[in-house]
Amino acid sequence: MKTRNAFQHEEVFVQLIREQKERFYLLAYNYTKNEQDALDVVQDSIQKAMLSLDRLENVEYMRSWFYKIVVRTAIDFLRKHKRLQVTDDDTLQYLTPAQEDVYENVDLEHALDELPIMYREVVILHYFEDLKLADVANILNIKLSTAKSRLYKALKLLKIQLQDVKGETAHG
Amino acid sequence: MDEKLKELEKQYNEVSIPKELDFVVENALKQGKKKRKKRAPQWLLGSAAAAMLFTAGLNVSPAMAKTLSDIPVVGSVVKVLTWTEYKVAEDSYDADIKVPSIENLDNKDLANALNEKYRSEGKALYDDFIAEVGDLKANGGGHLGVDSGYDVKTDNDQILSIGRYIVNTVGSSSTVMHYDTIDKQNEILITLPMLFKDDHYIKTISENIKEQMREQAAASNQEKVYWLKGAGIPDEEVSDEFTAVKADQQFYISDKGKLVISFDKYEVAPGYMGVVEFEIPTDVLKNDLVSSTYIH
Fold first, then answer.
1. Which of A40, B6, B126, B215 has its CA 20 to 30 A from that of B198?
2. Exposed, middle or buried by CB within 10 Å (0-12, 13-18, 19+), for B210?
C-alpha cells in the first residue's frame, strides 16, 4: 500500500516540478543570488524530495512540502558557504534607509534584496507564491505568530501601508 | 495588493531563468527515480541480511573464507567485499559509510596496505562526521549527510579497478572519487605515471580532454558545459579554467582496456554536471605508453 502511494506521489511530483520549476528556481535564486548555486539547490532539492516522497502522507501538501525542502536546502547551502548573515534589530534600524527619503522609486529598486532573509522569505512565500500564512510558518519552521510579526516587520521596513494586509493576517 | 508589493513581485519574477534549468531539472528527476528504485523493496532486505551474514562469516571466520576460496566459482567471486559499515540515521543527520576490503590477493603486503588505507579512511570519515554533528548540534542544528561506498569499475582476468566515492551533503552535495587499480596477475598497484614513458602524457591527455569537452558542449547544444573556453560557457565567465590533468589524476582502466580519467564534482564543470569521466582513445596515447599490456 505504501509503495503504491509512493508511485502515485511520484507522478504528481514530477508534474509539479515540471510545471513550476521556474517558481522554485526563483525562490532558490533569491537565497543564493547566483545562477549556478540556485541550479544546484534546485537539483539537490528534487533529489532529496524524491528520496522521502513516500514519507509524504497527503499529496495535497506536496507543494508546500517541496517549498520547505527548497528553503532548507538553500539555507543549508548559504550556511555552508557562510553567506548567511544574522542581523540584530539595532543594526537593522541603522541600516534601514531614513524614513523621509525622496527617491522612493530608487529605493524600491533593491528594497526586497536589502531586506534580511528572515523577512524577505515571508514576503516572497506569502505574496509572490500565494501561500497561506500558516503554510509559510510551517515551511519556515516557525510559529504562526512569528510569521505574522515578521510579515508586519517586513512591510514596515518596506514602508508598505498595513491596512492592505490586515484582512489576510488578522485571522490566519 | 499594494502597488509597491506589485512592483516588488514584478522585480522578483524578472530574474532571468537560465537555459540549463530544464536540463538540471530533468536530470535530477531521472536520477531521483533511479535512486528511489535502488532503495531496496521489503523482500530484498531478507537477501541483504543473508548477504551480510555471508560477509560477516567471511570476515569473522578464517575457516569459512578458506573453505569458500577453495571452491573455484565462489573463490573467484570473493574479491571486494564490504568489510564494515558505519551508519547514522537521525532526523537531519545521515551517514552511510561502506568500507571495502580486498580479499584473495596473494600479495599480502599490497592487500594489507590497501585494506588498511580503506579502513583508516573510513574510520576518519566517520569520526569527522560525528565531530561535525556535535558542532552543529551545539550551534542549533542543521542538516548533514555523508554517503561513502565503492564501485567495482573493472574486474577481469587482468585488472581490478575499485572506485570509492564520498558524497558530502550540506545543502548542496560534493562528490569525491578515489580509484585504485590493481594488476591481478602481477599483484601490483597501478599508478598513472607508471603507465607512461615520461611525463609527456600529461599534455597528451589534457589536450585530448579539452577537445572532448568542446565537442560535448557543441554536440549537446551547450547543455554540457565545462570550465574551459569554447566549452559552453561564455569566455569571460570562465574564471578557473581547466588547464591540465594532475600527474596523479584519478583514473581507472575499463574492462576493454581503455584509460578513463575522472574528475570530481566541481573540478572541471559546474556542480550539476556531477562527477565527469573521459575515456581517452588508445590511439592518442600509444606514443606515450610504456606498453600495451594494460591499455590497448
1. B215
2. buried
